[in-house]
Design brief:
The complex is a heterotrimer of chains A (245), B (292) and C (432). Chain A has 245 residues and is an alpha+beta fold. Chain A has a single domain, classed as Ribosomal Protein S5, domain 2, CATH 3.30.230.70. Chain A has five helices and ten strands; from the N terminus they run αββββαβαββαβββα. Chain A has a five-stranded mixed beta sheet. In chain A, helix 2 crosses helix 3. Chain A is globular, with a radius of gyration of 18 Å. Chain B is elongated. In chain B, the strands form three sheets. In chain B, strands 1, 2, 3, 4, 5 and 6 form a six-stranded mixed beta sheet that branches. Chain B has 292 residues and is α+β, with helices and mostly antiparallel strands. Chain B contains six helices and twelve strands. Chain C is 35% helix and 20% strand. In chain C, strands 1, 2, 3, 4, 5 and 6 form a six-stranded mixed beta sheet that branches. In chain C, strands 12-11-13-14 form a four-stranded antiparallel beta sheet. A two-stranded antiparallel sheet of chain C has the order 7-10. Chain C starts with 7 loop residues before the first helix and ends with a helix. The chains are: A alpha+beta (245), B alpha+beta (292), C alpha+beta (432). Strand 9 of chain A pairs antiparallel with strand 14 of chain C. Chain B: Its main location: cytoplasm.
Chain lengths: 245, 292, 432
């Protein structure tokens, strides 16, 4: 049974982590000069890049301008060399479009769009190396990029993917665990208010376990938010030293 | 940062310079060029700082990240097994692809590849073919039945001019970094057996390096243009040379004319640059090997 | 075609009604609309009506080579078509956001939950497997397409029978339905999706939104479950913020609804089986003459009638009595009568000058009274007077020429002024 391999008797997972342990998160903000805001985030072996342009004037179809809010435009794509098998179609296939829609929905809830009527904010996310938890890493990277661009948000948006094996929730799944047929739940959370911006779950899970799984996801997200907070503060310190006080 | 080596006649405040730069970019650049220098403090024939990082993407068979100033290009190489073409049964093939996504600059829109990306892909394909950087016979496993296909995907992450140079350097470094697994063909069942543990590197014959130039006002030649300089230039030129001082490609897509003497200057500058880059790549590869 | 936008007053009305726990069609907050399931002649064809939302699902199968990384599993393919038949907002051919969303949700609900045993679809490992294709077509869009599509898809899969296959060495023979009975698919469980819509930043919750309610909602939560209380998929969409308790509450409601719907599907399948066994003609063609499918009968919708009679009586008593006096029409010229308000005649005809002054007087008098009542009287009086004259009382035509030898010069003027008075009357009432 796949469950035996994924969680050993002593409670260790495939890569030696404990059940509730997150992978190592490393992030850098302000990596690109062209963009208004950019961030690079690594969560274990998954590497993602997020770039934000805006707020700027509506490009393309003027008819989509909203008179009281900004339009958020997201694009999610994976590099062709990011997965073990070469990806033939990096954009335009159904999964990427669905991910872009989910990202857009998540950030529409979090960004204070009423402050920028008739404008557009572009968020581009690219996965350079994929090892599970694609959506969560994208959301975390995009949060940092939006903060780097100086666009006001209601709170950090932190995301995490959790799985359920042998009555134990596993936090932050890697690719091997995800493809092993484990029921996985992806959650995007605004930690301070405990509000869920996006909830997505596949595979069978009994209703009674739902509560424990959501709880575990929320705790994991709060852990991620602490890391992101530290990264932002450190970046601000560096920047203020450079500009000179 | 406008701190530069040149000294202008009258003292001006930095904010004035910034407005001047936005309102009259050509005049702004000309005023620097008159003093034989550029806004970011470089000489006319000086390159921006080049940084190289290899082997960072573990899902790719070979990878390299190159930064020329602010321009960032990442190249990932994936090797797949395929049937060789009918015309060349004893050769494998290399498929390059340059991607300029909208995240690298606001001038690119989402959608199918634009003409700049397509032109760059074709340029890289020409360079690979004419320079024979890899002998495609090396990629053949069994004549007429099985060969390697190398998909080289170059992606620009930050666009600040001079993408072609960065792409070529990234491609070369990634190829040097590529490790292909051993393939044995089971003669009975005709199925290939791949042993992922045993890997060998590719044999790189030549080291082509590209150098890009920009021509201002029909006479002034500058090396390694930034995005702003590229948009103001009257002509562009790219020269590809290798370590044996052979010329592989001269790419000048239209623009104002250039005298033969200036062209010779370009070529000599390109050869100097080639030695620089080759040394950089060798050193980085060596450091990775000793670290392993 | 672009969708007609929702008017602000309609939106406010809907939101206010939801605050008072009232829905447009009289349902309760957690009620589903009436679900009707019918089957077609072929195995695997199924129609689902969810209120007025209508959806059709068709299952077909084909022998193909399997995927390389899964050589002994069959292939499931899902496709949802949003045809322009369903709503003028859907365009043919373009893959809109809604279409991508619905397709992905259906795929996740049915494929990732492994409701079908794909290994039983394998014929020759590595060479031939069955590819099961489920096509769902939207026929009418009245909200909650996802639920209807999931019910239709899973029912069609339960109903479907694939041809029997025999393997002899390397040869594979596929038997037609006449030779051997086709076999049903092996289905582990039936995942059904339940949609919850949220309003006013998550304060109010409705199950099974209709199209109007969908337009004003903030966001949607879709929970797919089976009757064993296992959750197969959860998806929140639309940018709402949820709290954990809301999600838990929704999942409890969903489990109740899913068991009801699963029972209904079971009954429908049973009925269809009986009908086929009895040998009677069944399916789409049969139901047309009996108007079972094609007629879109309006269901009786309950209207709140609690204290209507008392309220009506109240209003009638309190209302003012209609006025007793009626302004008498003025007859300036035989054949012409005028009463009621009107504006100045701008035609400048000499004959009308006298009438103008009288009109103004009439207008002053008539202002306090109901214009309509007097107008009606005027029409009646004119009818009685000009017997030969053909009345085109409501026409706005400028000149109606009626040929009477004696009154030839008067007739145009009469009708002209009459129509002008109509216009004035209309204008005045508009002004009011």
């Amino acid at each position: 049974m796949a469950g035996l391999e994924l969680l050993s008797d002593q409670g260790y997972r495939l890569d030696g982590r404990k059940a509730t342990e997150l992978r190592k998160v490393q992030a850098r903000m302000g990596v690109f000069a062209q963009a208004d805001g950019s961030a690079y985030l690594e969560q274990g072996n998954t590497k993602a890049l997020a770039v934000v342009y805006g707020p700027h004037e509506m490009r393309g179809s003027r008819s989509r301008t909203l008179h009281d809010r900004a339009v958020i435009n997201c694009q999610y794509s994976m590099a062709t060399f990011s997965t073990a098998e070469r990806k033939r179609r990096p954009h335009g296939d159904r999964k990427s479009t669905e991910m872009s829609l989910h990202l857009k929905q998540t950030f529409e809830a979090a960004v204070m769009t009423q402050l920028y009527p008739r404008s557009q904010i572009d968020i581009y996310v690219k996965i350079l190396q994929s090892d599970g938890g694609n959506y969560s890493v994208c959301v975390n990277a995009a949060t940092l990029a939006v903060i780097d661009a100086g666009i006001p948000m209601r709170d950090y948006v932190c995301a995490c993917t959790v799985g359920f094996v042998d009555e134990t929730p596993l936090a932050d799944l890697c690719y091997a665990e995800e493809s092993g047929g484990v029921s996985s739940l992806a959650l995007a959370l605004l930690p301070r208010g405990g509000q869920i911006a996006l909830l997505q779950m596949d595979a069978r899970l009994h209703q009674d376990h739902l509560e424990t799984l959501i709880e575990a996801a929320m705790t994991a997200c709060k852990g991620v938010s602490k890391v992101l907070d530290e990264v932002v503060r450190q970046h601000l310190q560096e920047v203020s030293v450079l500009t000179g006080e | 940062m406008i701190g530069s080596v040149c000294v202008t006649q009258s003292p001006v405040s930095p904010s004035f310079l910034l407005h001047f730069r936005t309102a009259e970019p050509l005049e702004y650049h000309r005023s620097f060029l008159k003093e034989n220098c550029r806004p970011d403090g470089r000489e006319l024939s000086e390159f921006r700082t080049t940084t190289l990082n290899i082997g960072s993407i573990s899902t790719a068979d070979g990878s390299a990240l190159v930064k020329v100033g602010n321009t960032t290009v990442i190249c990932g190489i994936k090797a797949e097994l395929a049937n060789p073409t009918v015309e060349a049964p004893g050769k494998g093939y290399i498929v390059p692809n340059v991607d300029l996504p909208p995240l690298c600059s606001s001038r690119f829109r989402p959608g199918p590849p634009g003409e700049q990306a397509q032109a760059a892909s074709q340029f890289i394909a020409d360079v690979i073919e004419s320079s024979e950087v890899i002998q495609t016979e090396d990629l053949c496993i069994e004549r007429g039945k099985l060969c390697w296909v190398l998909y080289c995907d170059m992606m620009c992450l930050d666009y600040d001019g001079n993408v072609l140079d960065a792409c070529v350097v990234a491609l070369l470094a990634a190829l040097k970094n590529t490790q292909l697994p051993e393939v044995t063909v089971n003669t009975e069942t005709c199925t290939p057996g791949v042993t992922l543990e045993k890997r060998h590197g590719l044999r790189i014959n030549k080291h082509p390096v590209a150098t890009s130039f920009c021509i201002f006002d029909d006479s002034i030649l500058i090396v390694d243009p930034t995005a702003e300089e590229e948009s103001l230039a009257t002509a562009q030129l790219t020269v590809v040379t290798d370590e044996e001082d052979r010329l592989y490609s001269l790419h000048k897509p239209g623009g104002t004319s250039l005298s033969g003497q200036k062209l010779q200057e370009c070529i000599s500058r390109a050869t100097a640059r080639q030695r620089e880059i080759q040394k950089l790549i060798n050193k980085v590869i060596h450091s990775v090997k000793t670290a392993q | 075609m672009k969708d007609t936008p929702l008017a602000n007053c309609e939106r406010d009305f809907l939101l206010k009604a939801i605050e008072e726990k009232k829905r447009l069609d009289g349902r309760q907050t957690y009620d589903y609309r009436k679900i009707k399931i019918t089957f077609g002649t072929d195995y695997g064809c199924c129609f689902v009506d969810l209120g007025r939302t209508r959806v059709m699902a068709q299952v077909s199968c084909e022998l193909v080579a399997p995927k390389e990384n899964r050589p002994n599993e069959g292939i499931m393919f899902f496709n949802i078509e949003l045809s322009p038949m369903a709503s003028p907002a859907f365009e043919q051919g373009r893959q809109s956001e809604l279409s991508v969303k619905l397709n992905r949700q259906l795929e996740r609900c049915l494929r990732n939950s492994k409701c079908i045993d794909t290994e039983s679809l394998c014929v020759v490992s590595g060479e031939k497997v069955w590819q099961i294709r489920v096509d769902v077509h939207m026929l009418n869009h009245d909200g909650n397409l996802m639920d209807a599509a999931s019910i239709a898809a899973i029912t069609a899969l339960c109903h479907f029978r694939r041809p029997d296959v025999a393997i002899q060495g390397d040869e594979v023979t596929v038997f037609s339905p006449e030779e051997r009975d086709p076999i049903p698919l092996s289905i582990y469980h039936m995942p059904i999706s339940v949609s919850f819509s949220f309003f006013q930043q998550g304060t109010y919750l409705l199950v099974d939104p209709c199209e109007r309610e969908e337009r004003v909602m903030d966001g949607l939560l879709m929970i797919a479950m089976n009757k064993h209380r296992e959750i197969c998929s959860i998806q929140s969409s639309g940018g709402i913020m949820l709290l954990k308790d809301q999600v838990m509450r929704c999942s409890k409601i969903a489990s109740v609804k899913v068991s009801e719907i699963t029972e209904l599907i079971g009954k429908a399948l049973e009925n269809d089986k009986k009908a086929r066994k009895a040998g009677g003609r069944c399916g789409f063609a049969e139901s047309i003459p009996q108007e079972r499918i094609t007629a879109l009968k309006m269901e009786e919708s309950p209207v709140e009638m609690m204290d209507v009679t008392e309220r009506a009586n109240d209003i009638v008593q309190k209302a003012e009595a209609p006025p007793q006096t009626v302004p008498s029409p003025v007859v300036p010229v035989p054949g012409v009568g005028q009463v009621g308000q009107g504006l100045q005649n701008t035609w400048g005809l000499e004959d009308d000058d006298e009438e103008e002054e009288e009109e103004e007087e009439n207008g002053n008098r008539g202002e306090e009274q109901e214009g309509k009542a007097s107008k009606m009287e005027k029409y009646e009086k004119e009818e009685s007077r000009g017997g030969d004259v053909v009345e085109i009382s409501d026409s706005e035509e400028e000149e109606v020429v009626i040929l009477h030898p004696e009154t030839s010069d008067k007739a145009p003027v009469n009708t002209g002024s009459r129509s002008s008075s109509h216009q004035k009357g209309a204008a005045k009432s508009k002004k009011k």
